[in-house]
Amino acid sequence: FPVENIRNFSIIAHVDHGKSTLADRLLEITGTISTTGHNKQVLDKLQVERERGITVKAQTASLFYNHEGTNYLLNLIDTPGHVDFNYEVSRSLSACQGVLLVVDANEGIQAQTVANFYLAFEAQLSIIPVINKIDLKNADAERVEKQIENMFDISKDECIRISAKLGTNVERVLQEVIEKIPPPDVSTNDPLKALVFDSTYDHFRGVIANIALFGGEIQKGHKIMSSHTKKTYEVSEVGILTPNEQPVQKLYAGQVGYLIAGMKEVTEAQIGDTLCLHKQPVEPLPGFKSAKPMVFAGMYPADKSEYNNIKSAVEKLTLNDSSVTVHRDSSLVLGAGWRLGFLGLLHMEVFNQRLEQEYNASVILTAPTVPYKAVLSSAKLIKEYRGEEITIINPSEFPDNSMVSAYLEPTVLGTIITPDEYIGKILALCQTRSAVQKDMVYIDEHRVMLKYLFPLNEIIVDFYDALKSLSSGYASFDYEDAGYQPADLIKMDILLNGNSVEELVTIVQKEKAFTVGKTMCERLKDVIPRQLFEIAIQAAIGSKIIARETVKPYRKDVLAKCYGGDISRKMKLLKRQAEGKKKLRKIGNVEVPKDAFISVLKRQ
Ligand code: GTP
C-alpha cells in the first residue's frame, strides 16, 4: 500500500457513548466482518470486557475501503473510555494521525469527552467530531453541536450526526477519515523503525507485539534489535489485525500490525520500545511516559501453595497491562505476595478479575491505599537521610511522627460535568471530601462543568458511586494528577479480639480518624460472619481505642436443618459450608471473608 493511502485513527469518547458499536459498523461496512449474525462489540475480546460491557484494552483492526476508485488501508484502534484507562488512550494515540471524537446526542459532552479531547489536541491530531445515537427519542444533536463549538472551538458544520446502532451516516465517517486525516509522514526508504505500542502474551506463541512502523519495512527472517535491551531476534511472523491476527509477507512504513520474534520472556517486549534492524540502529522514538500508579494494594495467593502459579500469571498479565507496577511483599497472616500499583480502583478490580478468569488464579486483595510521602527529620536517623522524602505505599510501614517533619498526600484535579439542578448536592458532597473548588463554568444553558482539587484518597474508593447516585446517573467525573500537598496524617490500627491486623492498617487525616474508624468497625461487623466466640472489632490510634463493635457468637450448625436421614441432602449442605469457608481467611483465630479488606473502606 502506498503510504498516502493509509490512515491510522482512533475512536475516543466518554464511556458508553458508542465507540465499540461504531467500530463494529466500520468493520461491517468495510467487509472486515460479516453482516450476518449480530456483531456486538467485536473488538471487546476479553471476557471481563464482555461481562462488564466496557472496553479495557485498546484493540487494533485493519480495514480495507474503496473510496472513489482508490483502495485505502484504514487502521482503527479502539480505545477504552473509563478514567482508569486513560493511559491506554494516550498510548493508542501515538500510533495515529487522527481521531473520531464520539459524543452521545442525548448525554452530550461528559467529563471524559473533555479529557480525551485534550489528549488528542495536545498530540496535534486531526479531530473529527461525531454525534452518535441520533435515533434516540431524546437526542438533541443541535445542543451537542453547540457544546462542541463552545468547549472545543470546532465549528458545528464539521460534526457528523450518526446512529452507530442503525448504521445511519456511518459511511460518511469513513469518507471523512480519508479526507480529513493525513496519511502518516513516513518512508519505506528509511531504516526500519517500529514502535511497540502494545503487547500480549500467547500461551503457544510467546510474546506478540503490536507495532506501528515509522520507517522501513519488516518481514519474516529479518534480524531485529530492541533499542531498549539491545537484544536481537529473528522475526518469525508479521501480520495485520483484522481484528484477528492475519499473517502477511511484509509490513511497510505507515502500517500498523503485529510481530512475533521468539520473545519468550514477558519483559522482552517493552511497550514504548523501538525495534530496528540489527545492522541499522536508529534513534529510538520517544517512549511513553510510564503510567503513574494512583492506588496500591497487597495481593496474596488465596491458597499459599499457588504462589508460583500466581507469580507467573501476574508477570504475564503485567506484560499485557504495563501500567501495573509490582513489588514483592509479605505479610504475617497472608504469607508471600506482592504490592501492586494500579491507575484506579476499577483498574484494580479488572486486573483481579482477569487473573481469575484468564489464569484461574484466586487471590486476596488488601485495602487500597494512595502513595503518601513523608519528609524525614529525626536526629535518630543517619544524618544523610534527614530532609529526605520517602513514599509510603504500604500503610503498615507508615513512619512514626517523631521522625517526620511533614506528611504529604497526593491530590488530583477533578472535572465534574452535571445538569445544573444537582449542583447543590454535588457541592455538599465535595465539601465532605475536603475538596477545594477551582472553577465553575456553564457549557450550555443547563449544564455546568466544575473543577475541584481533591485529596486522591477521598475519591478512589466510592466517590464516583456517590456522585452517580446523587445525580441520578447524570453527572460524570474525570481526574488528573495534581501533585502533592501537605496533610495532617495519622496511622489507624484495626484490632480483632485485641490483635492488630496488618492488612487493615489505614492512613487517615487526623480530623477524620474518628469517623473513618467508626465506619470501618461498622462495616467489618457487617461482613465478618458470626463465629463460635465473640469478636471485638476495634479501631485504635496508638494505644487509644476510638471505636468498637462486637460480633456475637453463633453456632452455625447446618445439619440442624436436616430432619430425618436424607444423606444426599446432608452431603450437599456440608459441601456448601466447606465452599463458604474457602472464601474466608483466618486472622488470629477470626475468620474474615476475602473481600472484606476492600468493602470496609466504602463510606456510602
Ligand atoms: P466503552 O467500551 O465501555 O467505553 O463503551 P463504548 O463507548 O464502546 O460504547 P458501546 O459501543 O459499548 O455502546 C454503549 C451502549 O450504547 C450500548 O448499549 C449500545 O448498544 C448503545 N449504542 C451505541 N450506539 C448507539 C446508537 O447509535 N443508538 C442507540 N440507540 N444506542 C446506541
UniProtKB/TrEMBL annotation:
Any Gene Ontology CC annotation: mitochondrial inner membrane
Superkingdom of this protein's organism: Eukaryota
Record: residues binding GTP: 13-20, 78-82, 132-135
Record domain Tr-type G: where: 4-185
Regions that span the bilayer: none
GO BP term, pick one: translation
InterPro entries: EF-4 (IPR006297), EFG_III/V (IPR035647), EFG_V-like (IPR000640), EFTu-like_2 (IPR004161), G_TR_CS (IPR031157), LepA_C_sf (IPR038363), LepA_CTD (IPR013842), LepA_IV (IPR035654)
SUPFAM superfamilies linked: EF-G C-terminal domain-like, P-loop containing nucleoside triphosphate hydrolases, Translation proteins
Membrane topology recorded in Swiss-Prot or TrEMBL: Peripheral membrane protein
UniProt subcellular location: Mitochondrion inner membrane
GO terms assigned for molecular function: GTP binding; GTPase activity; mitochondrial ribosome binding
Gene3D superfamilies, sorted: 3.30.70.240, Elongation factor 4, C-terminal domain, Elongation Factor G (Translational Gtpase), domain 3, P-loop containing nucleotide triphosphate hydrolases, Translation factors
Main localization (coarse): mitochondrion
CDD domains documented for this protein: EF4_II, EF4_III, LepA, lepA_C
Record's keyword terms, sorted: GTP-binding, Hydrolase, Membrane, Mitochondrion, Mitochondrion inner membrane, Nucleotide-binding, Protein biosynthesis, Signal
Catalytic activity of the protein: GTP + H2O = GDP + phosphate + H(+)
Summary of the function given for this chain in its UniProt record: Promotes mitochondrial protein synthesis. May act as a fidelity factor of the translation reaction, by catalyzing a one-codon backward translocation of tRNAs on improperly translocated ribosomes. Binds to mitochondrial ribosomes in a GTP-dependent manner.
Family: Belongs to the GTP-binding elongation factor family. LepA subfamily. Belongs to the TRAFAC class translation factor GTPase superfamily. Classic translation factor GTPase family. LepA subfamily.
Protein name: GTP binding elongation factor GUF1
Originating organism: Sphenodon punctatus (Tuatara)
Encoding gene (name): GUF1
